[in-house]
C-alpha cells in the first residue's frame, strides 16, 4: 500500500476563492492533521489565513508561507526544499505530525510545472504523492477568465475537482453556462457548486488513486474517464474546442506489455510534451503482477504505481489525455501501434 503523504494541490485564478476555501477547510476537524504551504505574491502574510485557525495550533505550526515569487516558476526549488524540510521535521518530530499536505498556489500559477516538481524529485516522489488537483473557478467571471487567461484554462483543464465558487452572487444561467464550458474543457473532473468556501472536505480530499482508509486503490474514480462524447473507440479525432483544449481516452489493444508501452509513453512525452497538460492511465500489462496507474505531465512521465490487490472485471487498459492544441490523431496512432 502506498504510504506516501497525500498532497492536495489547490489552485484557481486570481480572486476565485482559494483562500476563502482553505480557511473553511482548515477549520474542519477532518483537516486538522494537515500541513499547508501557501504561495502568495507579495507581503500578505499568514495572518489572514491563520486568523480563523484559533482552535488548531497544529495547523499554525505546520504552515509555511512562500511569498517572494511563484512556485510554478521562480520558486520552483523553494517548493521542493519546503516539502523536503516539512517531511524531515515530521520524521524528527520537530513539528506536529501531519498526514496530508495542502499546497495553495497563486492565482496565476501554471499547475503543470508544479505537478512536475512534485513528482520528479526523488526525495519528494518517494515521500509525497499527488492526491488531487482542486481548482476554484469564479462563477461570475469564470467564463471570461477562461477565454482571456491561458493560466485559468490550464488550471481548469488539469483539475480533478472543479469548485465553482460564489454561486450566491452569480445568476443560475451564468453558473449553468460555466458548468457546461467546464464539462467541455475537462469532462473527467467532478464539479461542485459552492458558496463562501463551504464544502465537505470529503469531496476534495482522498479523491485520488487510493481511498481514505488507505487499504485499496480506487483508480476508476481517479481516472474518471471522460463522458460518452469524448470516448470514441475508433480512431476518429475529436474536434477540439475553440480554446484548443481537448480531452480524450485511448482504449489500448490487448494483450499489452509494459516493456513495450513504456518507451511509447516516453516518446509521446518527448514529442508532444509542450502541449500535453496531463496524461493518466490504467494499464493491465501481461508482464506486471498487478495493474499499473500511469501519470505524466508535459515532458515528464512519472514512475508508475503498481495497484497491488486491485483488479477490474473487464481488464481494459485506457489512457486519458488532456492537451492544448494537441494532435489527437497522431497520439492515437502512436499508442495503437504498440
Ligand atoms: N459572495 C461571495 N464571495 C466570495 C465567495 N468566495 C470568496 N468570496 C470573496 O471573493 C474574494 C476573493 O476571495 P479569495 O478567497 O481571497 O480568493 P483567492 O483565490 O484566494 O484570491 P487570490 O489569492 O488573490 O488569487 C474575497 O473578497 C472573498 O470574500 C463566495 O462564495 N461568495
- The poorly predicted ranges are 227-241
Ends distance: 30 Å
Can you list the ligands bound to this structure? guanosine-5'-triphosphate
* Structure annotation, total helices: 12
Based on CA inertia axes, which overall geometry fits? globular
For the biggest sheet, the summary is: 7 strands, parallel
CATH class of the largest domain: Alpha Beta
How many β-strands, per DSSP?
13
Arithmetic mean of pLDDT: 83
Sketch the topology as an H/E string, one letter per element.
Answer: EHEHHEHEHHEHHEHEHEHEEEEEH
Question: What is the CATH architecture annotation of the largest domain?
Answer: 3-Layer(aba) Sandwich
Placed side by side, the strands forming the largest sheet appear as: 3-2-4-1-5-6-7
Strand content: 15-25%
> What is the count of distinct domains?
2
Helix vs. strand class: alpha/beta
CATH topology of the largest domain: Rossmann fold
Describe the structure in your own words.
GO terms for molecular function: hydrolase activity; nucleotide binding. This is Cobalamin synthesis protein P47K. Keywords: Chaperone, Hydrolase, Nucleotide-binding. Zinc chaperone that directly transfers zinc cofactor to target proteins, thereby activating them. Zinc is transferred from the CXCC motif in the GTPase domain to the zinc binding site in target proteins in a process requiring GTP hydrolysis. By secondary structure, the protein is an alpha/beta fold. It folds into two domains: 199 residues, P-loop containing nucleotide triphosphate hydrolases (Rossmann fold), CATH 3.40.50.300; 111 residues, CobW-like, C-terminal domain (Hypothetical Protein Yjia, Chain: A,domain 2, 2-Layer Sandwich). Helices cover 32% and strands 22% of the residues. The chain is built from twelve helices and 13 strands. A hairpin with an 8-residue loop joins strand 9 and strand 10. Helix 4 crosses helix 5. About 4% of the residues have low confidence. Bound molecules: guanosine-5'-triphosphate (GTP). Guanosine-5'-triphosphate binds next to helix 1.
Amino acid at each position: 500500500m502506498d504510504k506516501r503523504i497525500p498532497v492536495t494541490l489547490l489552485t484557481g485564478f486570481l480572486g476565485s476563492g482559494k483562500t476563502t476555501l482553505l480557511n473553511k477547510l482548515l477549520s474542519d476537524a477532518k483537516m486538522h492533521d494537515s500541513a499547508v504551504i501557501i504561495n502568495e505574491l507579495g507581503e500578505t502574510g499568514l495572518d489572514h489565513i491563520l486568523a480563523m485557525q484559533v482552535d488548531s495550533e497544529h495547523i499554525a505550526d505546520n504552515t509555511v508561507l512562500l511569498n517572494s515569487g511563484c512556485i510554478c516558476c521562480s520558486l520552483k526549488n523553494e517548493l521542493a526544499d519546503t516539502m523536503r524540510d516539512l517531511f524531515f521535521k515530521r520524521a524528527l518530530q520537530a513539528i506536529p505530525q501531519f498526514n496530508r499536505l495542502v499546497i495553495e498556489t497563486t492565482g496565476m500559477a501554471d499547475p503543470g510545472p508544479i505537478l512536475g516538481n512534485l513528482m520528479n524529485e526523488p526525495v519528494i516522489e518517494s515521500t509525497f504523492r499527488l492526491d488531487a488537483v482542486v481548482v476554484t473557478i469564479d462563477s461570475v467571471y469564470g467564463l471570461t477568465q477562461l477565454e482571456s487567461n491561458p493560466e485559468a484554462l490550464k488550471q481548469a483543464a488539469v483539475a480533478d475537482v472543479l469548485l465553482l465558487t460564489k454561486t450566491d452572487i452569480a445568476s443560475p444561467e451564468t453558473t449553468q453556462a460555466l458548468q457546461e464550458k467546464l464539462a467541455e474543457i475537462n469532462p473527467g473532473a467532478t464539479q461542485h457548486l459552492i458558496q463562501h468556501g463551504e464544502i465537505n472536505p470529503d469531496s476534495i480530499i482522498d479523491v485520488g488513486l487510493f481511498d481514505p482508509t488507505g487499504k485499496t486503490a480506487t483508480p476508476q474514480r481517479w481516472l474518471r474517464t471522460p463522458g460518452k462524447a469524448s470516448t470514441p473507440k475508433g480512431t476518429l479525432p475529436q474536434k477540439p474546442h475553440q480554446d484548443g483544449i481537448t480531452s480524450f481516452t485511448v482504449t489500448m489493444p490487448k494483450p499489452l506489455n509494459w516493456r513495450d508501452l513504456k518507451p511509447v509513453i516516453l516518446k509521446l512525452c518527448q514529442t508532444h510534451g509542450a502541449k500535453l497538460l496531463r496524461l493518466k492511465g490504467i494499464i493491465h500489462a501481461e508482464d506486471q503482477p498487478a495493474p499499473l496507474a500511469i501519470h505524466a505531465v508535459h515532458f515528464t512521465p512519472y514512475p508508475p504505481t503498481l495497484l497491488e490487490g486491485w483488479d477490474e472485471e473487464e481488464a481494459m487498459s485506457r489512457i486519458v489525455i488532456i492537451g492544448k492544441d494537441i494532435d489527437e490523431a497522431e497520439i492515437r496512432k502512436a499508442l495503437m501501434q504498440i
